[in-house]
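Fold in C-alpha cells:
===
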Amino acid sequence: MVKINPEKITLDEEMSKRNLDKSSVTLLEEVKTKGKVWRDLSKKWGVENPDPPWKITLEATCDVLSEVSCALPGVERRWEEDELTDEHYKDVPFPERQLLALAHSMIRRGLIDEDDLKRRMQEVDKRLNMVE
C-alpha cells in the first residue's frame, strides 16, 4: 500500500494558489520539437561523457536563483518543474526537460526575456556551427 505524504499534499495546495502560468512559451516549444538533446549531440561529436557540458551551469543557476536572490526558491522551482513537465515537457529527456522547465519559469516570472533568450541561443548556435 502506498502511503500518502501529508507534507506533499500541503505543498501542492500552497503552490496551486500561486497561479503558475503554464501557458506555452513559443521559443521553448520550438526547442522542444526542433532542438537536439545531448545524447544525440554527444554521438555526433564523439563525446563519451553522459552529462552535457551545460549541466553544471544549470545546477549553479538553480542554486543561485534559490539561495542568493530568492527569485525562484528551490521548492517552488522543483514544484513548477514537475507541473511544467507534466504539461509541456514530459517527452523531453532529462536534463533537457529540467532546463526547459527552468527557462519557462524564468520567462513567466519576468526574470529573462523570451526574445533576448532567442537572440542569445542564435549567437551560441552560430558559434557552434562555425566548426562544422
User: Anything to note?
Assistant: Residues 24-131 form one domain. The chain has a mean pLDDT of 86. The first helix runs from residue 6 to 16. The two ends are 55 Å apart (CA to CA).
